[in-house]
Design brief:
Largest sheet: 2 strands, antiparallel
Helix content: 40-55%
Number of strands: 2
Strand order of the largest sheet: 1-2
Number of helices: 3
């Protein structure tokens, strides 16, 4: 995450790429990555909690109308769900 964001910083945390959530096999044998504290405590935790990545520059990750570019952002997920409800009510 740090290097992908263009950050050259000291990694201080060994992070499980896939959250193990108490599953021993994933904890013991899961793939690891090195992260700096801010990426692990901020961006990674946010992704695990919400399912979408804020990105290294989250405040700018919007289109010209201000909508988030990330398809997994809650606003986009909610919009797709509302559109699906409308289509189902219309018989599509």
């Amino acid at each position: 995450m740090c290097a992908a964001a263009g950050k050259t910083t000291l990694a201080t945390i060994v992070d499980h790429i896939q959250a193990h959530k108490g599953v021993w096999e994933l904890f013991a044998y899961g793939e690891l990555q090195s992260l700096c504290g801010p990426c692990h405590s901020g961006r990674k935790q946010h992704f695990e909690a919400t399912g979408h990545d804020r990105g290294p520059d989250f405040s700018c990750a919007c289109d010209v109308n201000g909508w988030p570019l990330d398809p997994m952002h809650p606003s986009n997920v909610r919009m797709r769900e509302e559109q699906a409800k409308k289509r189902s009510k219309q018989g599509f």
